[in-house]
Amino acid sequence: MGGAQGGSGREPAAPPPGGADFEIRVRGRFGESFRSAFGELRVVPRPAETLLVGTGLDQAALYGILDRVQALGLELLEVRRLPGPEGA
User: In terms of CB atoms within 10 Å, which end of the chain has fewer, N or C?
Assistant: First the structure.
């Protein structure tokens, strides 16, 4: 049979040693109390959702943020690793 095994054949990129930049989308808009729970992130309100943007996050920090999202009862829509600078 052919050599295709599903997927792109590429291994997922490992986060850089110093961490990576992430965008986390949650449903709804935050009030000040929710914003203070995510003080280490840039909070970007959108009409029907809020973006949480973090820079230089390692895996432990990302999981901690996701735990807070869940503990606060927020609906997680998407977690996306942002592209790093060219040549990094």
Answer: N
Adjacent-strand bridge partners of 22: 54, 81
For the chain, the distance separating the N- and C-terminal CA atoms, rounded to the nearest angstrom, is 38
Buried b or exposed e, range 16-37, using 16+ CB within 10 angstroms: eeebbbbbbbbeeebeeebeeb
pLDDT in tens, the chain (88 residues): 444 444 445 544 554 566 899 999 999 998 888 888 999 999 999 999 999 999 999 999 999 999 999 999 999 999 999 997 654 4
Q: Which amino acid is at 18?
A: G
Contacts (Cβ under 8 Å, ≥6 apart) of 61? 19, 40, 54
